[in-house]
């Protein structure tokens, strides 16, 4: 069976893995300036990618379709390894090593123009073709060929941080060489060449022809002599570390500027080392040997932390290529198949913040039947929470193996849980004991599932899912079906012929007869559930400020919601009854009757962040929108979009609920609360007005119907101190810069009392102007010390109706000076107030003056 011999992760497409089988070597995937190609050397080329073949060709392929773009043929020798580097605007460098031990460098300027010119060349085998001799003589091309090794080049890579090319071979005397791209202007070398010319009586120096290898000057290279040569290496600027491995089974650690002797030796592999990678963020070294053993080493301690044995990894065949992806924390190993080994690390401590999960939360839902909240995570963990107290009741892991849970929903009675995952399966659970009742999946390959829903059509119940398969999968939920694994119903005819052309991201239902799906390319299709025909379809328009006619703007629709009260009533036949998210934080309104039409749009996210979730109240009077920055916006839409619109609806509230993207948003109308989840590992509960009830998993219990048990008027600690929560008013920005509260200088002294008074007065004027918007603005710029001092001061007696202010307590923790540095001088002294045992409830309307409280626009109360 042919083996995979090259692996890359697509640049800009971190979840895309490119592979190639012999005799094609897939080397690198890049995006050329203005032209995305895949380069190969017969090579796949990046938007264009680069491959190569044994017939000495470099080929460029369209990345989207993998169709040939153009090729360069008649290379001097057989290329073995390839690399690419973006060196500037519309400039790049392509490098390859060959069987003669040479490093070949192609410097390209005006890359887009050059490639388009090559595409117009005469075709060979239906591919535009240009010879290497013609290509290197172009004005935008510089070709250099260095003679570096006395054996085949085993690996080669350009390191932008060092501005140097590192190449290796199995020749001991030139095992690894760090060299320049262009020769340096060395005066001594030039004088030596002039003397040689004079001595030999030559009138002109003879320059080597195209393709003739040139030796580098000694000052332009650093040579590392290694026993039995080097098969693989990696270089890290952060740790100033070079690691090499080869036939002698040792990993050598070098200072890249000191080639004389390695700084460390790592022993443990029993066969030659074929792959090395340095993870600078984790301070780890990953190594793979030819016997398929994987080891992880600690850079500082120079010890082996972990060994993955071949039998445990279930990797069969000879290893021909490996790749470690720091972003995905995964090691890809290629033999006659491709295996992915995922590194699972212990969760990092979260400091003062309270978290619900150890991994990012991707979905959440509420079961009204049991009054429970269910959340699913990136780590395939399901947790069940008590809605009324916030306490965890049950959890089970590996719901979808090691694949993330991307969506969840409940059956019509709220008694069974349906989850969808990146393994392409839907699973139906008894979520109170973790029993999997049924698995719903396609035959063969199962693409990732992005969203799912449960609905009833007449007397039948269905589970529907959408995702990377680009089709609507429909499963009949019948109690008579006793099969544990169930296949989907035949697809609708319109879905097969006229359906989505891109990955479907979300699904929305409007019983009894309508269903809407949206895709990555911005297309929305409304389906008739009874007939399976397309009712109408839309394409999300581009914003006016998209630039370049909107090219490069992501149109993906992340969320949709129906206004059901309008859809079912004739008097709203011309009104908007479908809402969708779009680019640049915009919300779009659509009419789906009479063929459908676009009603209008407005910008929702003040930071132009993608809107990730939409929800409406049961009576369709309030719209809730959540964005990637963790903000929630509330709009009053009772009489909005009854006709084509130009202005945004009235904003009733805005606050920041999480510090990362919100992945779940659900209104619990019966209790007038809002449920949210986020990739910041938390699931939270809020009142419909934005008052913070609590984070699921916190130590203190709450009672949904007892406001005094809520965290309000407090807000989550990490939201309070996050930089994005800082004020956006220009007045505050100027005062913050004067007071030294900028991000670049966090050590400056706090603002004076006079500055604070000036800031307060100017802010009040600004708030008066913005009173109609009633947007919640983040708190004033404060330090962590101020927050800790206020928290500690919260336990002191305070007069009823008065809230604590940061500026009042900014001097509370100053040490008392008694003229002696004794321990007693550091004690804090406080006066004790005589208060009655019966405390009145605080006057909550006064909380409207707190800039931390959602919707706060009231005047500051006068100080007594």
Automatic annotation (TrEMBL):
SUPFAM superfamilies: WD40 repeat-like (SSF50978). Residues 743-752 have a biased composition (Acidic residues). Keywords: Repeat, WD repeat. The keyword Repeat applies. The keyword Repeat applies. SMART domains: WD40. WD repeats lie at residues 266-307, 354-395, 405-439, 497-529, 655-687. It holds the Pfam family WD40. Residues 733-754, 840-864 are annotated as: Disordered. InterPro entries: WD-EF-hand_domain, WD40/YVTN_repeat-like_dom_sf, WD40_PAC1, WD40_repeat_CS, WD40_repeat_dom_sf, WD40_rpt. This is WD repeat domain 49. The lineage of its organism: Eukaryota, Metazoa, Chordata, Craniata, Vertebrata.
